Amino acid sequence: MAKAVTIKVKLLSTADTGFFYVTKKNTRTMTEKMSQRKYDPVAKKHVEFKETKIK
Fold first, then answer.
1. What residues does 12 pair with on adjacent strands?
2. CATH code of the domain occupying 6-52
3. Predicted TM-score (pTM) of this structure
4. Which residue among 4, 9, 26, 48 sits deepest, i.e. has the most Cβ atoms within 10 Å of its Cβ?
5. 45-52/35-40 β-pairing
6. How far is CA 49 from CA 4, 5, 44, in A?
7. How many angstroms separate the CA atoms of 20 and 1, rounded?
8. What's the alpha-carbon Rg for the chain, to the nearest Å?
């Protein structure tokens, strides 16, 4: 059976609030770790979110 092209990743807030988003990522086109600026409702501002593994 073939390996899946898209995987689920967790985007964890760098503000150390513990808030995270779950999104999909295409492993063939995005080989490096994902990072996005998104809204953290716990910190009440936009912060950098970095990719971590889902456990």
1. 20, 50
2. 2.20.28.120
3. 0.86
4. 9
5. antiparallel
6. 24, 22, 14
7. 31
8. 12
Q: What is the pLDDT along the chain (55 residues), one digit of tens a residue?
A: 888 899 999 999 999 999 999 999 999 999 999 999 999 999 999 999 999 989 8
Residue ranges of the domains in the chain? 6-52
Q: What is the enclosing helix (H) or strand (E) of 12?
A: strand 6-13
**For residue 31, what pLDDT is reported?**
92
Length of the chain: 55
Tell the residue number behind the tokens 């995005």, with chain if given.
30
Which helix (H) or strand (E) segment holds residue 36: the answer is: strand 35-40
Residue 13 in tokens = 């807030």
